C-alpha cells in the first residue's frame, strides 16, 4: 500500500470553542475528532450545513439531576419492563447529533490507512453491515450500494453498526481526540503516516498507534516529543499526566438512564418546578409542531400508519422515506436532535426486564464488567502490558468481576440464597423469567428512541427493546457520551 505524504494542513488542529464550517465547498474539519479533512489524507467529503462545536467536539453539556426513570404512560403494548422510579444521574456530555455516515467514514479511512497492508481483517471489521438494507420482499439495493458511501448521505445517521462496533468507535474517537490535544499543546508531534510502509504490524501496534491508556501506562511507548514537552522539577522531559488537564475523558455509549434523561430534556423552571408526564422529547402529546412559525411540521421521523412512511406526494409529512439528516426536525430543551425517531440508538446497558427495580438510585446501570489490564512481564519493577490488535492495552475480566447477571434470580448471582440446601430464595421483586428466555443473554443490549420504521409508541423515551451486541439493523444507530469530571460549573457557564 502506497501512501501519499501527509501535509501539515491535513493535520490542522481544532481549538476550544471554534466554529466548524460545513460550507458549499465541502466539509473542512471533523466535528467528532477535530482533525482536518484533506484529500492528501485520503478522506474527502462534500458539503452540507453549519455546526457550532463546543468542548468536547460535537457535544452538548447536560446538567444532571433527579428524574422519573421508566414508564410514564398507560399506553403499553408490550410487557412492562421499565417500572418508574426516581433516580439521579450525574452531569455528562452527549453528542448533539447521531453519529453520521461521514463520521464513520473518517473512522474507516483511518483504519484503512493504518492497517490495510498489515491487518486487512481489522479494516473489514470496522465496516458497517450494508446488507441490513436487504429485505426478502422489498427493493432496497440502491441503499445497499449508496447509503454509507455516497456524499448525498453524508449527514445521515450511520446504520448497520453493532453495539460492539459502536464501542470500538468510541475507543477510537477517544484516542484521536487525545492525540490531537497533545499535538495542539505541542507535547508530541503529528503522526507521520508515510512511515507506515516501512513498519511491521507489531511496530505499528506498539509504537505508531496512539492509545490514551498505553500513553499513560506503558513506559516503553514514547511518541516523538514536540516543541513544548512537559518536564519534571528536575528539567527532565516526561509524559503528560491526567493532572495536567490536557487529556479528555473516554468517549462511550450513554447508559440507559443518561439517554432517557437526555431524551426527555426535562429542566426545572426559575421557581424550581418540574413538568411531569412528558411523553416525548417535546412538550405535549401531539406529533406536529404547534408553534406558529413551524405549525403542522412533524416533530420526528416515524411511521404514521400502515404503509405511511412519508406522506402523500406534494404534501409529505416528515420528508423522509427512510432516515433523515441528523439536524432535521427540532431539538429538545437540551439542544439534542432526533432523540425520538430517525434511528433507534444503542445504549451501554445489558437488557433485563428487572433493571429498573434492582439498579442503584444514583447513576443506575446494568452491565458492569470489571476489567484488569493484561501484564506481559515486569521491567525495572514496572509492568509491561500486552498490546491488542488495535494498538491498545489488552484487558480481561474474571468470572467474579462480571456483574451483568447480577440479581437475575439464579443461584450464582443472587445475594440471598441458602448455601446449605442449594435452593434459591426467590425474591418476588425479581423476574427470573429472564433466565428462562434463551434470547436474553449477557450479550443482549438495550436500544431506545424509535426509528423511521417504527410507530409512535416507540418514540416515548421510556420504551426499550433489545438486540444481541453482535447484530445490527437498518434502523439502529448511536451517539456518544462522556462523563463530566468535576462540578456542574461547566454546564452553567454554557447556558
**pLDDT under 50 segments (min length 5)?**
1-25, 46-54, 411-430, 432-436
Strand order of the largest sheet: 5-8-22-11
Q: How does the major sheet shape up?
A: 4 strands, antiparallel
Oligomer: single chain
So what's the overall shape? globular
Radius of gyration: 24 Å
Return the average pLDDT rounded to an integer. 83
Structure overview:
This protein has 495 residues and is α+β, with helices and mostly antiparallel strands. The protein has one domain: paralog of FGE (formylglycine-generating enzyme) (Alpha-Beta Complex). It is built from 9 helices and 22 strands. It has helices spanning 101-115, 120-125, 141-146, 163-184, 201-208, 212-217, 256-264, 355-358, 489-494, and strands spanning 19-20, 22-23, 26-27, 51-52, 59-62, 65-69, 85-89, 92-95, 230-231, 237-238, 251-252, 311-312, 315-316, 344-350, 372-373, 375-379, 382-385, 395-396, 444-448, 465-468, 476-477, 481-483. The strands form 9 sheets. The chain has a 4-stranded antiparallel β-sheet with strand order 5-8-22-11. Strands 20-19-14-21 form a 4-stranded mixed β-sheet. A hairpin with a 5-residue loop joins β9 and β10 (237-238). The N and C termini lie far apart (48 Å). Mean pLDDT is 83; it is low at 1-25, 46-54, 411-430 and 432-436.
Amino acid at each position: 500500500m502506497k501512501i501519499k505524504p501527509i501535509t501539515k494542513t491535513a493535520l490542522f488542529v481544532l481549538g476550544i470553542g471554534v466554529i466548524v464550517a460545513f460550507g458549499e465547498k465541502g466539509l473542512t474539519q471533523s466535528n467528532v475528532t477535530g482533525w482536518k479533512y484533506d484529500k492528501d489524507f485520503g478522506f474527502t467529503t462534500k458539503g452540507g450545513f453549519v455546526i457550532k462545536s463546543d468542548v468536547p467536539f460535537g457535544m452538548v453539556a447536560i446538567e444532571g439531576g433527579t428524574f422519573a426513570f421508566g414508564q410514564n404512560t398507560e399506553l403499553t403494548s408490550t410487557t412492562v419492563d421499565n417500572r418508574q422510579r426516581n433516580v439521579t444521574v450525574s452531569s455528562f456530555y452527549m453528542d448533539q447529533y447521531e453519529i453520521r455516515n461521514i463520521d464513520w467514514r473518517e473512522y474507516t479511512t483511518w483504519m484503512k490507512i493504518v492497517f490495510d497492508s498489515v491487518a486487512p481483517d481489522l479494516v473489514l471489521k470496522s465496516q458497517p453491515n450494508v446488507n441490513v438494507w436487504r429485505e426478502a420482499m422489498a427493493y432496497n439495493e440502491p441503499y445497499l450500494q449508496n447509503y454509507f458511501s455516497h456524499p448525498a448521505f453524508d449527514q445521515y445517521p450511520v446504520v448497520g453498526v453493532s453495539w460492539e462496533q459502536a464501542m470500538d468507535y468510541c475507543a477510537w474517537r477517544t484516542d484521536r481526540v487525545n492525540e490531537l490535544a497533545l499535538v495542539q499543546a505541542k507535547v508530541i508531534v503529528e503522526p507521520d503516516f508515510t512511515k507506515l510502509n516501512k513498519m511491521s504490524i507489531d511496530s505499528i501496534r506498539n509504537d505508531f498507534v496512539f492509545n490514551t491508556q498505553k500513553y499513560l501506562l506503558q513506559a516503553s511507548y514514547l511518541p516523538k516529543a514536540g516543541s513544548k514537552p512537559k518536564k519534571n522539577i528536575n528539567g527532565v522531559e516526561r509524559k503528560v499526566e491526567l493532572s495536567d488537564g490536557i487529556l479528555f475523558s473516554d468517549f462511550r455509549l450513554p447508559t440507559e438512564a443518561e439517554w432517557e434523561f437526555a431524551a426527555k430534556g426535562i429542566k426545572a423552571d426559575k421557581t424550581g418546578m418540574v413538568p411531569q408526564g412528558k411523553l416525548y422529547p417535546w412538550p405535549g402529546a401531539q406529533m406536529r409542531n404547534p408553534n406558529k412559525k413551524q405549525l403542522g411540521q412533524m416533530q420526528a421521523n416515524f411511521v404514521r400508519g400502515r404503509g405511511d412512511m412519508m406522506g402523500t406526494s406534494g404534501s409529505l409529512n416528515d420528508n423522509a422515506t427512510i432516515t433523515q439528516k441528523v439536524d432535521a426536525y427540532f431539538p429538545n430543551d437540551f439542544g439534542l436532535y432526533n432523540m425520538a425517531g430517525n434511528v433507534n440508538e444503542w445504549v451501554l446497558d445489558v437488557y433485563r426486564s428487572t433493571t429498573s427495580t434492582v439498579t442503584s438510585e444514583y447513576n443506575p446501570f446494568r452491565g458492569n464488567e470489571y476489567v484488569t489490564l493484561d501484564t506481559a512481564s515486569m521491567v525495572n519493577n514496572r509492568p509491561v502490558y500486552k498490546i491488542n490488535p488495535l494498538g491498545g492495552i489488552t484487558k480481561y475480566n474474571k468470572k467474579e468481576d462480571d456483574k451483568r447477571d447480577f440479581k437475575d434470580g439464579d443461584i450464582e448471582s443472587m445475594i440471598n440464597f441458602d448455601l446449605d440446601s442449594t435452593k434459591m430464595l426467590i425474591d418476588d421483586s425479581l423476574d427470573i423469567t429472564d433466565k428462562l428466555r434463551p434470547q436474553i443473554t449477557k450479550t443482549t443490549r438495550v436500544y431506545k428512541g424509535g426509528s423511521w420504521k417504527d410507530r409512535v409508541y416507540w418514540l416515548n423515551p421510556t420504551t426499550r427493546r433489545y438486540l444481541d451486541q453482535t447484530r445490527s439493523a437498518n434502523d439502529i444507530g448511536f451517539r456518544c457520551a462522556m462523563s463530566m469530571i468535576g462540578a456542574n460549573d461547566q454546564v452553567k457557564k454554557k447556558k
